[in-house]
Design goal:
Elements lengths: L12 H7 L6 H13 L8 E2 L1 H8 L3 H13 L3 E4 L3 E4 L4 H25 L5 H16 L5 H18 L2 H6 L2 H11 L5 H19 L3 H20 L7 H5 L1
Antiparallel strand pairs: 1-3, 2-3
């Protein structure tokens, strides 16, 4: 944040923080909710309690309600008269449609990353996040693995260098999808995912754009077929919203 961090003579730190305009910003609430989703604190179908957020973030209800409206507009929350604000859970059809689009985007991202892998520190950065994803993946479909895999894809998109492409990726919705189905991923499916991530990484590091695009699209296609074949129980949270 910009501006001085010093405290006025006759004001306590608590009093000063209450009068900062940033402390009552809806954006601060939005950031807290999105961060909570990324960390697995908030999961699909979970109801967000307005009073809890106002107390936790030390602000009035106005900014919290405005944040709820904005996040609902972005497809992160669902607002209803009966349950208030809930973290969005996706239906089977929505998952299929999202992954069809993501397949094309991920394929293009991998192709671009393969082209630029030897520029600057790209190779070093990519190897580092890939090794971390593998390390976490060996422990299973944990929250740490979901986060490290997200970091891997973020770096993949960054290396590609296309800012418009990066902006098209619905990152929060993808996080929600991973959280929604985390408990339904079998050990065998998890191991298949790791093998496919290996294939993507190897093709990118080889600097082979066509192979990178092909392996990335294959991974997303397999992922789509796997998730859309899950039992109705995996989509129960979506049907309750």
């Amino acid at each position: 944040m910009k501006g001085s961090t010093t405290t006025a003579k006759n004001e306590s730190p608590q009093q000063t923080s209450k009068i900062k305009p940033e402390s009552s910003s809806p954006q601060r609430v939005m950031d807290a909710i999105v961060n909570g989703i990324q960390k697995g604190r908030y999961v699909p179908g979970q109801r967000l309690i307005e009073a809890d957020l106002t107390r936790e973030l030390q602000m009035s209800r106005g900014p919290v309600r405005e944040a709820f409206k904005r996040l609902a507009g972005e497809g992160v929350l669902v607002l209803s008269k009966n349950r208030g604000a809930c973290v969005r859970a996706q239906t089977r059809e929505e998952v299929n449609d999202t992954l069809v689009v993501l397949e094309a985007l991920a394929g293009l991202a991998a192709k671009l990353a393969a082209r630029h892998i030897d520029e600057g520190s790209n190779r070093k950065r990519f190897i580092a996040v890939f090794k971390d994803a593998v390390k976490q993946g060996e422990k299973g479909e944990t929250q740490a693995f979901l986060e490290s895999r997200r970091n891997l894809y973020d770096v993949l998109y960054e290396i590609g260098g296309n800012k418009e492409l990066r902006g098209m990726v619905p990152r929060v919705q993808i996080n929600l999808m991973r959280l929604q189905f985390q408990a339904f991923v079998s050990r065998k499916q998890h191991e298949s995912q790791l093998k496919e991530l290996h294939a993507i990484a190897e093709s990118v590091l080889e600097g082979d754009p066509k192979k990178a695009e092909r392996t990335a699209k294959f991974h997303l296609r397999r992922r789509r077929l796997s998730l859309t074949s899950l039992p109705d129980e995996a989509y129960a949270a979506a049907n309750q919203l």
